[in-house]
Write a structure and sequence with these properties.
This protein has helices at about 20-30, 65-75, 90-100, 120-135, 165-189; strands at about 5-10, 35-40, 80-85, 110-115, 135-140, 145. The longest helix is centred in the last third of the chain and has 26 residues, at about 165-189. It contains five helices and six strands, in the order E-H-E-H-E-H-E-H-E-E-H. The chain has about 190 residues and is of the alpha/beta class. Strands 1, 2, 3, 4, 5 and 6 form a six-stranded parallel sheet that branches. Helix 3 links the parallel strand 3 and strand 4 (about 110-115). Bound molecules: flavin mononucleotide. The site of flavin mononucleotide has 13 residues, from loops.
């Protein structure tokens, strides 16, 4: 069974580091072998602050940006959100993108790869779980936290993991694949 994994770049600001980390996650997930991974950049969707007139649970979307975002999110069996910490919290771009939809997220698991200073983005990762569970996304406990994230980026701007990070990412993807297969069954019932 082929499982589609969306590796989502959560930050959208100019000069962001998110794509550097997410490109590594996508390539690591490809070699892991449990998924068919796709890199999804929130910036490409250019979502304004939530601007739909109806509650997203209706699925009646007025705007083209929402329809595009809905089609993308609906196509995934699992997500890895690659998120920084802004003021001990997930970036507003991610909170906004999550709020745009309801049913497209339902009964799907998510892993979190967070990055930041000493915290490795863990406070943001914990805080976003509250919103994920409200949307019936299952945030798995196994995740990857990258403290002082610049230590992982080489002079050429490429992300270089270490043994500990690779181990954490493997465990996260193993668990995510288990949840993704189980929840796929639940969605089909
Ligand atoms: C508005 C803002 C708030 C931030 N707050 C935190 C924070 O609470 N904890 C932390 O570790 N880093 C914080 N940082 C530093 C980020 O970890 C760093 O800028 C990182 O590059 C952000 O990810 P991005 O480049 O993908 O946007 C903050 C950065 C910004 C722009």
């Amino acid at each position: 069974m082929s499982l589609k994994l969306h590796v989502v770049v959560a930050s959208t600001r100019p000069g962001r580091v998110g794509p550097t980390v997410a490109r590594w996650v996508e390539s690591f997930a490809r070699s892991h072998g449990g998924f068919d991974p796709v890199l999804i950049d929130l910036k490409d969707f250019d979502l304004p602050v939530f601007d739909e007139p109806e509650h997203p649970a209706t699925g009646r979307y007025r705007h083209e940006h929402t329809k595009r975002w809905s089609a993308s999110v609906a196509a995934a069996d699992a997500y890895v959100f690659v998120l920084p910490e802004y003021n001990y919290f997930p970036p507003p771009s991610l909170v906004n993108a999550l709020n745009y939809l309801v049913h497209e997220w339902t009964y799907k698991p998510a892993g979190l790869v967070s990055y930041g200073g000493v915290s490795g983005g863990l406070r943001a990762a914990q805080a976003v779980k509250l919103l994920l569970t409200t949307l019936k996304i299952m945030p798995i406990p196994e995740g990857v936290a990258l403290p002082n994230f610049r230590q992982f980026i080489d002079e050429g701007g490429t992300f270089r993991s270490n043994e500990l990070v690779d181990k954490g990412a493997t465990v996260m993807l193993d668990e995510l694949a288990r949840w993704a297969s189980a929840l796929k069954g639940l969605r089909e019932r």
